[in-house]
Write a structure and sequence with these properties.
6 strands; globular
């Protein structure tokens, strides 16, 4: 059975859409169908007006709190950050949560969707192995 993910988007004015539960395939589809052009135009309008703003983005989060954050840098250029919790030990003794993180910038749409699909459908250990 596929994991349930949480999907949400971040608007250029920093607001977030309400998180919704999705399956891996639906999460990838929602990212692919997101109106990136409209949100990027809104980002430009806010920036020109001198208002606080951020690049449009979206998050897919797994139940273990691992997530991929996708954000738009240019009309056909994206960045993504993969963050996965990993067990660590403080002073080699006390169990605690650590984080494995990798980011990519200047990613084209097809490469972006390939990484998002890997994150959504593969175990975290496999994703970490592939990204080194």
């Amino acid at each position: 059975m596929a994991e349930t993910l949480t999907f949400e988007t971040q608007q250029p004015d920093f607001s977030m859409t309400e998180a919704r539960a999705v399956g891996p395939e639906e999460g990838v589809r929602l990212l692919r169908q997101h109106d990136w052009a409209r949100q990027f135009a809104r980002f430009g309008d806010l920036a020109v007006a001198g208002k606080d703003c951020c690049p449009p983005g979206a998050f897919l989060t797994k139940p273990d709190q691992s997530f991929v954050h996708v954000y738009q840098l240019e009309p056909d250029c994206f960045g993504l950050v993969l963050t996965i919790p990993v067990p660590k030990k403080f002073l080699g003794l006390i169990p605690m949560k650590g984080w494995w993180e990798r980011d990519r910038e200047a990613v084209d749409v097809e490469s972006l969707m390939d990484w998002v699909e890997r994150f959504a459908t593969q175990p975290n250990e496999e994703v970490m192995r592939q990204l080194g």
